[in-house]
Amino acid sequence: MKSFGSYISKYLVSFVAFILILLFLNAVVFGLTFQKIVTEDYGDSSPQAMLEMTATAATPEQLSDEAVQMLRQNHIWAIYLNTDGQCYWSVDLPDNVPKNYTIQDVALFSKGYIEDYPVFIWNTDDGLLVLGYPTDSYTKLTSNYYSIAALQRLPIFVLGMLGLDLLCLFSAYYFSKRRIIHNTEPIVSAVETLADGKPVSLHISGELSEIASSVNKASSILNRQNEARANWISGVSHDIRTPLSMIMGYAGRIAESKAASKSIREQAEIVRKQSVKIKELVQDLNLVSQLEYEMQPLHKEMVRLSKLLRSYVADLLNTGISDSYNIGIKITPDAENAVLECDARLISRAVNNLVQNSMKHNPQGCEVCLSLTASQNHLILAVTDNGTGLSAEKLQELEEKPHYMESTDERLDLRHGLGLLIVQQVAIAHNGNFKLTNVFPKGCEATLIFPYVPQRRPTQDYRQDHRSHAGYGRGYVDAGPADPFQAETYDGF
């Protein structure tokens, strides 16, 4: 896209321009600042100042006392040579420094050193004035001189400038990044929302308006497709319901008719059972569609999950299940008072799907335990069985695609596998998570994890409600102690 390319190009050009400006400022600052350090390092005792002062106070016969004192204060020696290189006078001349020089000698030291002493010269009408500084004071080049003290501070100066450069570059990078993130974050968020199947609408001007327009267009297309798919499923479900009810009704009458033969009644019962399965499939498919496209209204209320689980287990046991299945419930003390804002009907549906899934996959019988625990931030509802469990391949398959279609026999005993998908969607609808794992040594565990904020104490209604659910009959269901604050762990096995 041209708009996105120009957007990135603008920031790249700005960054390159910033670097070039920074380099130019570095050169200017270094030149001015370091030159100032060099020239001002010795202040009034700099070579230029001392030469002017000494030349003014010198004659071939002598040097003024004030000038001599100034030289000695700064540890500078001096010699005044005539045009032939002979010494008029000297001040504190070192022993190893000659007094007389040839023209060639003058030419050599005039730009450098005499016996490792950096020297500076001044031409007068009467001759040549030479000032010698301490050996550790200056370093001289062909056309310039630098203070050794200044040169010793040069690395620190350079490092300081590099530090400032890095700080400036980091600041430019940081604020550019913030600006780019601020401008592109709505688009990234919209794409993530779009990936979740939810509609988006972006209102962005400038260089990124073209991208925003494309995202809005894609969202509109996907939204229309989702609505069409959901409406089609809902319409088909509604259209199937009436004839299916008639089939079930007629099949039920034939199965119970004494006038029909035994073979006819058996076939009619098969038709009725398969019709029930088709009805359940259509209902599940409709619910999956409504949850996926957020067409299922959530009737949230504050629900005590311990009560919900006990009520579910009581209803399940009262419907009459095979003796090969033992149903248990386990609620930890910290979860006994847990209240979750949720749709109780959907939570019960998810729990029932998990329990039925354990029973369907273990026709030989098994123990099924419903457990509820609470942590500081989460409420964990688990359905665990000690059945055959799942293979690693099956777990991976369900993780990638939590639904399946399979036929278990030639009579079309169809298991659609939408139950786990419904559980997953119920968890998502409540901002929770769903996971399926094997347990040791055998069995399977399905876990629903919901965000949870613990409450300090139960209400009076809770105390009364808690005492009203004692005694479920057959099974391993414990109603809990009379006082919820003395609750123990309820173990179904």
Structure commentary:
- This protein has 493 residues and is an alpha+beta fold.
- It folds into 4 domains: 73 residues; 94 residues, Beta-Lactamase (2-Layer Sandwich); 86 residues, Orthogonal Bundle (Helix Hairpins), CATH 1.10.287; 186 residues, Heat Shock Protein 90.
- Helices cover 52% and strands 16% of the residues.
- It has 13 helices and 16 strands.
- A hairpin with a 6-residue loop joins β13 and β14.
- The radius of gyration is 47 Å and the shape is rod-shaped.
Topology (elements, then pairings):
Layout lengths: L1 H39 L6 H11 L7 H9 L3 E5 L5 E5 L11 H7 L3 E2 L2 E7 L4 E5 L5 E3 L4 E3 H48 L13 H48 L5 H31 L8 E4 H15 L5 E7 L1 H4 L2 E4 L1 H17 L5 E9 L3 E8 L6 H9 L5 E2 L6 E2 L2 H12 L3 E6 L5 E8 L8 H8 L26
Could you state the oligomeric state of the chains shown?
Answer: single chain
- Strand tally: 16
Radius of gyration, in Å, reads 47 Å
Q: Supply the number of helical segments.
A: 13
Please describe the structure with a list of short key phrases separated by commas or semicolons.
13 helices, 493 residues, five-stranded antiparallel β-sheet, 4 domains, Beta-Lactamase, rod-shaped, five-stranded mixed β-sheet, Helix Hairpins, alpha+beta, single chain, 16 strands, disordered C terminus
Gist?
The protein has about 500 residues and is α+β, with helices and mostly antiparallel strands.
